[in-house]
């Protein structure tokens, strides 16, 4: 498949770049005509007991159809995101006896227009008896989850024999996902069935939640995900607001829409990161790393969500790309009076790489060794795979030295160090150069599950793919068409792709954890291969030839007989054969695209072992020592995600990941006051990077296929963020290291850098 997608063909682009994409707010299904609009009343305090909620004035307002609070609902809490979570930490559709963060929904107003509903919502009077922050409770109530092997009392025995031990404490602040499209839904009951449109990464997961909450059978719910304008993990499952909107639609017998505002999104959409780490790294002065410990404290927010489980991924990748023989790691996730922390691009893996790569740089500085040389001496060798790390993680394939060397060479690392020294020796040069290196390995396709695909040939010779993996910007429709086209010898333009509709695609887990190509893509490949084999069998019957003599002719999109190319049958002729329709009817009676089915094959690809993409990033920054301002001048990224199927989409994923990694390291931090009041609720005070802050990215690509799936592919959706964030952190610290600054906490704002330069003692010693 090495030539797959080399042309850069992308089916999604025309509609999206010309404004013809249809998102949830654009859905104009006839059943949604005259839909009502719901607006939520949200808690203004972080922690407190609800004394009363006065809905009378809102119910009497002009144009209002209904106003409800938790006491009006006849449904329970949403199911726990993970079975291991205590049900006490599950999310209620509306706050019941208490509120647990600013922005938690406490009531819902439904009216003919959103403006009318917003006006009425201001009339709802909520009396809350405020409580101290964080939420009171004993340690067992506060603790959500503890995983890993604790490092006892600093683990002195772990570091026995180490000549040098460094300790680095880092806080990874809260990040707001900020998808371009905020959350939204539209619900209506038609002939007893709940139809629900939603902006989600996992429509089948939303369907299962709706079934569980309302006690509905499988055929009583249809969920559709149209275009989804970004998610990054934050739209993984059903959210409380859309459950309430669906409840209102069922109760009122009317279509109900909900569209989140940007400020609501900042207040209540799940955050990412929020992890504090203490890393200790030991070794000798010759540069051999011998021991490592990592202790993680995870702020899970008010309710248990995927963020509380994020440290599992952090601990899994404890020792990263290095052959460190001894390591321990542990984490504790706790509740706080803040927005729940969920999945966010990388979920735990950027945190693991960030802690380790920062410790490696500090160790290199301590022994006076170049950080690239220290890394080279300790990387897991290419001949060591499959490799089992000190914490028991088994990596499939890798060549970390090759990635590092490629990135360093492309950056002209030696020349950069010469230029850095020249600037440092010039006492009037205020723009100091920082060079940051990060080598990473991450895990993709984590967790159990399967992905569903069908591939069929219609009687007109065109093909259709249906996939349970529902995209939100990854380009699945292009990639799945290209995979099927390559296997079946068809023009990808003749292959339609269906996703995101639980009526048309009966199963699926969703799009997350960089699992799509390796699991869903492999399912498409497997189903396509089954159709091809069936086509060869039917062609053999029509040719009256041996099956082994029937070969695919991709230039003419059909079959021929080996040695006699004049004998040819196109896919249309094969699919139209009576035997083809009969065989398909036995396995799957559904039609394809509204036309009679010719041949259909179904695959359910179950997730096997995880795969482990890797890479090396070099980032060059300039830091103004008089103002603390940082300018990213170059980003060189060597990312290896196994076999690359679609280079344009691969590069797009890396570009987006790098931008988010730079953003969270230099700009982004969701801030709360001491009483739990959020202080960064708009994009005026929560900073995200624009194109003006980003350089052109220099990509160096290599391919190390994995044996873990038939495509040889690994995930790429989160690699850019993992490598870039760590490299930027090291680059900025490197730029001011000669001034006595040993470590900086992200985000690396001008003020934080300026203060550290003026008084390096304010940063605190790195032990």
Query: Any idea what the CATH superfamily of the largest domain is called?
Result: Aldehyde oxidase/xanthine dehydrogenase, molybdopterin binding domain
Strand content: 15-25%
Number of helices: 19
Through-space gap between termini: 50 Å
Task: Report on this structure.
With 767 residues, the protein is an alpha+beta fold. The protein has three domains: 13-131 and 180-230 and 235-268, Aldehyde oxidase/xanthine dehydrogenase, a/b hammerhead (Aldehyde Oxidoreductase, domain 3); 272-444 and 610-762, 2-Layer Sandwich (Aldehyde Oxidoreductase, domain 4); 450-606, Aldehyde oxidase/xanthine dehydrogenase, molybdopterin binding domain (Aldehyde Oxidoreductase, domain 4, 2-Layer Sandwich), CATH 3.30.365.10. The protein is 28% helix and 25% strand. The strands form seven sheets. A seven-stranded mixed β-sheet has the order 3-5-1-12-9-10-11. Strands 7-15-14-13-8 form a five-stranded mixed β-sheet. A four-stranded mixed β-sheet has the order 18-26-27-28, with helices on both faces. It is globular, with a radius of gyration of 28 Å.
Secondary-structure map with pairings?
Blueprint: H1 13-17, E1 36-42, E2 48-54, H2 56-59, E3 64-69, E4 98-99, E5 105-111, H3 114-121, E6 125-130, H4 139-142, E7 143-148, E8 164-175, E9 184-190, E10 193-198, H5 203-214, E11 221-224, H6 240-252, E12 256-259, H7 262-268, E13 272-283, E14 289-299, H8 306-316, E15 326-334, H9 349-367, H10 371-378, E16 387-388, E17 394-395, H11 400-411, H12 413-424, E18 431-441, E19 450-458, E20 463-467, H13 476-488, E21 495-498, H14 516-543, E22 550-553, E23 558-561, E24 564-570, H15 571-575, H16 578-587, E25 597-606, E26 614-624, E27 630-640, H17 647-666, E28 697-701, H18 719-736, H19 750-758
Parallel strand pairs: 1-12, 10-11, 14-15, 20-21, 27-28
Antiparallel strand pairs: 1-5, 2-4, 2-6, 3-5, 7-15, 8-13, 9-10, 9-12, 13-14, 16-17, 18-26, 19-20, 19-25, 22-23, 23-24, 26-27
Helix pairs in contact: 8-9, 9-18, 11-12, 13-14, 17-18
């Amino acid at each position: 498949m090495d030539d797959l997608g080399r042309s850069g063909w992308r089916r999604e682009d025309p509609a999206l770049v010309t404004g013809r994409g249809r998102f949830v707010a654009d859905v104009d299904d006839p059943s949604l005509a005259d839909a009502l609009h719901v607006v939520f009343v949200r808690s203004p305090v972080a922690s407190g007991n609800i004394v009363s909620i006065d809905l009378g004035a809102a119910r009497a307002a002009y144009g209002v159809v209904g106003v409800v609070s938790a006491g009006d609902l006849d449904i329970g809490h949403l199911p726990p995101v993970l079975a291991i979570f205590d049900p006490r930490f599950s999310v209620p559709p509306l706050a019941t006896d208490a509120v647990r963060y600013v922005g938690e929904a406490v009531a819902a107003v439904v009216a003919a227009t959103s403006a009318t509903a917003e006006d009425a919502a201001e009339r709802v009077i909520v009396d809350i008896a405020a409580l101290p922050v964080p939420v009171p409770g004993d340690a067992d109530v506060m603790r959500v989850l503890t995983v890993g092997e604790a490092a006892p009392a600093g683990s002195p025995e772990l570091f026995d024999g180490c000549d040098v031990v460094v300790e680095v404490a880092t806080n990874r602040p809260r990040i707001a996902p900020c998808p371009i499209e905020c959350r939204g839904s539209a619900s209506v009951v038609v002939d007893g069935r709940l139809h629900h449109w939603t902006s989600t990464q996992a429509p089948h997961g939303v369907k299962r939640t709706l079934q569980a909450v309302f006690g509905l059978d499988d055929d009583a719910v249809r969920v559709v995900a149209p275009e989804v304008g970004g998610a990054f993990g934050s739209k993984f499952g059903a959210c409380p607001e859309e459950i309430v909107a669906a409840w209102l639609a069922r109760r009122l017998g009317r279509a109900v829409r909900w569209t989140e505002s940007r400020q609501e999104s900042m207040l209540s959409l799940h955050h990412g990161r929020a992890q504090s780490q203490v890393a200790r790294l030991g070794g000798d002065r010759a540069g051999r790393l011998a021991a490592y410990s990592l202790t993680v404290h995870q702020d899970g927010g008010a309710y248990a969500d995927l963020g509380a489980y994020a440290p599992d991924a952090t601990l899994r990748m404890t020792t990263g790309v290095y052959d460190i023989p001894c390591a321990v790691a542990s984490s504790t996730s706790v509740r706080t009076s803040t927005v729940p922390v969920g999945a966010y691009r990388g979920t735990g893996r950027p945190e693991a790489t960030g802690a380790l790569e920062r410790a490696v740089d500090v160790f290199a500085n301590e022994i006076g060794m170049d950080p690239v040389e220290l890394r080279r001496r300790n990387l897991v060798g290419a001949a060591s795979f499959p490799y089992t790390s000190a914490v028991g993680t088994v990596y499939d394939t890798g060549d970390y030295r090759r990635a590092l060397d490629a990135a360093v060479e492309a950056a002209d690392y030696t020349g950069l160090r010469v230029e850095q020294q020249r600037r440092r020796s010039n006492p009037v040069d205020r723009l100091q150069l920082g060079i940051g290196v990060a080598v990473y390995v991450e895990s993709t396709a984590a967790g159990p599950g399967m992905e569903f695909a069908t591939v069929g040939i219609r009687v007109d010779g065109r093909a259709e793919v249906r996939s349970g993996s529902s995209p939100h910007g990854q380009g699945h429709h292009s990639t799945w068409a290209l995979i099927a086209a390559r296997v079946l010898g068809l023009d990808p333009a003749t292959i339609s792709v269906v996703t995101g509709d639980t009526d048309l695609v009966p199963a699926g887990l969703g799009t997350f954890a960089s699992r799509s190509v390796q699991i869903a893509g492999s399912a498409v490949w497997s189903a396509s291969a089954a159709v091809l084999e069936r086509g060869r069998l039917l062609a053999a019957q029509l040719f009256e030839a041996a099956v082994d003599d029937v070969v695919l002719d991709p230039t003419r999109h059909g079959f021929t007989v080996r040695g006699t190319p004049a004998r040819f049958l196109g896919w249309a002729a094969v699919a139209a054969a009576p035997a083809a329709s009969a065989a398909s009817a036995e396995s799957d009676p559904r039609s394809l695209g509204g036309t009679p089915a010719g041949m259909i094959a179904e695959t359910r690809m179950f997730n096997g072992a995880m795969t482990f993409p890797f890479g090396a990033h070099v980032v060059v920054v300039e830091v103004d020592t008089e103002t603390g301002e940082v300018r990213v001048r170059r980003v060189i990224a060597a990312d290896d995600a196994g076999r690359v199927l679609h280079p344009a989409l691969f590069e797009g994923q890396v570009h987006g990941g790098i931008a988010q990694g730079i953003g969270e390291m230099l700009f982004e931090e969701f801030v709360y006051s001491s009483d739990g009041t959020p202080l960064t609720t708009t994009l005026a005070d929560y900073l995200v990077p624009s194109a003006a802050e980003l350089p052109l990215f220099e990509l160096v690509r290599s391919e190390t296929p994995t044996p873990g799936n038939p495509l040889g592919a690994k995930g790429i959706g989160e690699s850019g963020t993992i490598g870039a964030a760590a490299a930027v952190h090291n680059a900025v610290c490197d730029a001011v290291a000669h001034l006595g600054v040993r470590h900086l906490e992200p985000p690396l704002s001008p003020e934080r850098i300026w203060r550290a330069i003026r008084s390096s003692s304010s940063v605190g010693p790195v032990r």
